[in-house]
Design a protein that fits this description.
The protein is of the alpha/beta class. It has 10 helices and 9 strands. The strands form 2 sheets. The chain has a 6-stranded mixed beta sheet, sandwiched between helices. Strand 6, helix 7 and strand 7 form a beta-alpha-beta unit. The relative contact order is 0.16. The chain binds adenosine-5'-diphosphate (ADP) and magnesium ion. Magnesium ion binds next to helix 1.
Length: 278
C-alpha cells in the first residue's frame, strides 16, 4: 500500500488504560484515505479504545502508529493540535450543553479552526447560520436550528452531534456507535446518510457499530474486534455468518442483538414520516 494513500497505520500497537488494563494488543491495521470502515464486536472488545487511539486522545503503550503520515506522539504540541483538528470524533454520549441552541452546537464544530474573535462573536450571534442549517437539513433536522438541545430526543441529539462533526469538515471521521439512541428505521437512514456524506466528501470514516446488519449493508470494510485483538478484517460482502458467530460467541448481548437487527425491515431513503421528530 502506498504511504501517500494511507490515512493511518498501526503496527503491533498496544493500548494500556491508566489502571493498567491492556485494552488493545498487537493491533496491525492500515486504512486508506476515503475508506469507510465499521468496527464490530461484543461489548468490552476495545472498539471505543481504538477510536480514542485514532482520535489522538490515547497514546499507544507499544508499537508504531502513524496518522496522516507522521507519528503524532513525536510531534510538537502545535503539530499535534493541527493533527487533531483534522479529525472529527463523534462520541457515544455527545458532550453538548443541555441549554445550548442547536445552531451553536453545530457551529462549535469549527471553534478549533476559527480565530478567537470569530469564535467569541459566534457565541453571541451565530456567524454561519446557513452553514449549520445546511448540515442539519441533510439529516432531516432543518426546522430545529434554534431549538434548545435539552428539548430534543436522544436520536435527534445524536444527529445534532453528527451535523456538528460534519460541519467541522474533518479528513478522518470517527463515530462511536453513532446511531445507538435511534429506532431501527432512523438508524438505517442515518447510517446511510453518514456513509453517503463521507463518500461524497472523500472523508475516511471509522465507526463502531452495535448493529452488525447495518455495518454489513452500508460500510465497505468490516473489522471484527474481540478481547482487544482483530479477529477479522474483510470487505463487508465477505464476512460469513461463521465469522460473526465466533465474534459474538458467549456474548449474550451480541447474540440477542444480531438476529433482532436482521429481522428489521429496511426502509427506503424517502420516508421522512418514519424519521419521527420527537
Ligand atoms: N478508561 C478506562 N480505564 C480502564 N479500563 C477501561 C477504560 N475504558 C475501557 N476500559 C476497559 O477496556 C476494555 C475495552 O473497553 P472499550 O474500548 O470501551 O470496549 P467497547 O467499546 O468495545 O465496548 C474493557 O475491558 C473496558 O472495561
Ligand atoms: Mg464502546
Amino acid at each position: 500500500m502506498a504511504a501517500a494513500a494511507t490515512a493511518f497505520a498501526l503496527h503491533g500497537v498496544d493500548v494500556v488504560h491508566r489502571n493498567g488494563h491492556r485494552a488493545l494488543e498487537g493491533l496491525t491495521l492500515a486504512v486508506r484515505h476515503g475508506e469507510r470502515v465499521a468496527l464490530v464486536g461484543p461489548s468490552g472488545a476495545g472498539k471505543t479504545t481504538l477510536l480514542r487511539l485514532l482520535g489522538l486522545s490515547l497514546a499507544p503503550a507499544d508499537g508504531r502508529f502513524e496518522m496522516f503520515g507522521s507519528d503524532p506522539w513525536r510531534a510538537r504540541a502545535g503539530e499535534l493540535r493541527r493533527l487533531r483538528s483534522r479529525i472529527g470524533h463523534l462520541h457515544q454520549n455527545p458532550p453538548i450543553p443541555p441549554r445550548q441552541r442547536v445552531v451553536h452546537a453545530v457551529l462549535a464544530g469549527r471553534l478549533g479552526q476559527w480565530p478567537w474573535w470569530r469564535s467569541l462573536a459566534s457565541l453571541l450571534m451565530p456567524v454561519d447560520c446557513q452553514g449549520a442549517a445546511a448540515e442539519l437539513a441533510r439529516l432531516d433536522m432543518a426546522g430545529r436550528l434554534f431549538e434548545r438541545c435539552d428539548r430534543l430526543s436522544g436520536g435527534q441529539l445524536q444527529r445534532v452531534a453528527l451535523a456538528r462533526v460534519l460541519y467541522q469538515r474533518p479528513q478522518l471521521l470517527l463515530a462511536d456507535e453513532p446511531v445507538a439512541a435511534m429506532d431501527p428505521a432512523l438508524a438505517e437512514l442515518t447510517v446511510r446518510l453518514l456513509n453517503a456524506e463521507a463518500s461524497r466528501r472523500g472523508v475516511t470514516l471509522v465507526a463502531s457499530m452495535h448493529a452488525v446488519e447495518l455495518a454489513l449493508r452500508h460500510f465497505e470494510r468490516v473489522i471484527g474486534v474481540r478481547g482487544g485483538r482483530l479477529l477479522f478484517d474483510l470487505p463487508a460482502d465477505r464476512v460469513a455468518p461463521g465469522r460473526l458467530d465466533a465474534l459474538y460467541e458467549s456474548d449474550p448481548v451480541g447474540a440477542s442483538t444480531r438476529p433482532a437487527q436482521a429481522r428489521q425491515p429496511s426502509p427506503t431513503l424517502q420516508p421522512c414520516a418514519v424519521v419521527s421528530c420527537r
